[in-house]
Design goal:
Blueprint (H helix, E strand, L loop, with lengths): L11 E6 L6 H5 L29 H11 L3 E5 L12 H19 L6 E3 L1 E2 L5 H13 L5 E3 L15 H10 L3 E4 L17 H23 L2 H4 L5 E4 L6 H15 L11 H8 E5 L3 H6 L8 E3 L13 H9 L4 H16 L8
Parallel strand pairs: 1-2, 2-3, 4-5, 5-6, 6-7, 7-8, 8-9
Helix pairs in contact: 3-4, 4-5
């Protein structure tokens, strides 16, 4: 197919990041939490995810987005991702409120282009719902919870039921991002040599597959049919295989070992689940026959493995073979529909 000319195709990244000030929580947590505040290494401008000032300066970010040809970005934390592994529920809740307040102000600079996702502590469901409501009123577009729950609070439990119901009623998608929660990410620094690769590929994918399995097979999506779930930064090449296998075994054993669902697992996925991709050539080939309405392109800016400033080149590599209407869904329309966005002009 003919390449799409720059400036004629609207791109919305479904997964990009801000770069919080390392002292954000030290400076802004309430006094009673100050001694427990998360501490991070000082900012080294020009290195890693701190390579671009747009991570913390929204005015600069808009300029950097234009360099990449991106009209809008859905924004997740960077340092804040690790805080989903905190065991202290009150501290986690306070940290997320500080972050959410900062993000709300950040997005106000260009509300049609900077799309914020709130961080939510779900140890206490009543408080989680209150924060979800507050952030929605303030203009944020969804809620991020842990992808790997605390062992005492699995997605298979009824603990989350009122939260799922509230997210459904508020039309706030629930987002599950890589490196959040009680999983391999808590001991990444201890994974040396070959074991680092196990975490980056095997364990990462297991977290996503396990969470998605529980939400489908334990009936969450069946009980809350308007709830939207987003699997973030886990790529998508593995998903059609898992859905195929889940459907096969559901059909094979449902009469002798019936799960609490009455549809094939893939039906729930197609109805309620979205997934992001940014550098997945295998997943790109699957778009010949799958994922047109559920997958969403992203650039992961400003992290080191981001496709910035070559996103259009990568998109052409991975999506150049799909029809224009499908490509438009993957790079713009699906994410705009999910978060009810006013689509900015192409840049």
């Amino acid at each position: 197919m003919t390449a799409v000319a720059a400036g004629t195709e609207t791109l919305i990244s479904a997964d990009s990041h801000v770069s919080e000030d390392p002292d954000l929580w030290v400076n802004l947590l309430p006094a009673r939490f100050r001694d427990m505040a998360p501490r991070f290494s000082p900012r080294k401008v020009g290195e890693g995810f701190q390579n671009k000032p747009g991570g913390w300066d929204p005015s600069e970010r808009v300029k950097e987005m234009s360099v990449d040809g991106v009209s809008a970005e859905v924004l997740y934390p960077t340092l804040g991702l690790s805080l989903f592994g905190l065991d202290d529920a009150e501290l986690q809740e306070a940290c997320f409120r500080v972050y959410n307040d900062w993000l709300i102000d950040y997005c106000k600079v260009a509300p049609d282009r900077l799309v914020g996702i709130a961080c939510l502590s779900v140890y206490d469901i009543d408080r989680a719902i209150h924060e979800l409501e507050r952030c929605r009123t303030a203009g944020l577009k969804g809620g991020l919870i842990w992808q790997a729950p605390h062992p005492d609070l699995p997605f298979t439990s009824s603990h989350y039921d009122r939260f799922w119901a509230a997210a459904q009623d508020l039309e706030m998608p629930v987002n599950l991002h890589i490196l959040t929660g009680h999983n391999y990410s808590k001991d990444m620094g201890a994974r040396q040599g070959v074991e680092h690769y196990r975490g980056s590929v095997n364990l990462k994918t297991f977290d996503a597959a396990s969470g998605l399995f529980e939400l489908i097979f334990y009936g969450v999506l069946d009980r809350y049919p308007r709830l939207k779930i987003v699997i973030v930064e886990n790529e998508i090449g593995w998903i059609p295989f898992f859905l195929q296998q889940w459907d096969y075994y559901f059909r094979r054993f449902r009469k002798t070992n019936p799960p609490p669902i009455d549809r094939e697992p893939s039906e729930y996925f197609y109805r309620q689940v979205y997934a992001t991709f940014f550098n997945d050539a295998v997943g790109g080939q699957s778009f010949r026959w799958w994922g047109h309405d559920n997958c969403m392109w992203s650039n992961d800016f400003p992290h080191p493995n981001s496709t910035w400033p070559n996103s259009r080149t990568v998109i052409e590599r991975d999506l150049g073979h799909v029809p224009p209407d499908v490509r438009a869904k993957l790079v713009c329309e699906n994410v705009a529909r999910l978060y009810d966005l006013r689509v900015p002009a192409a840049v």
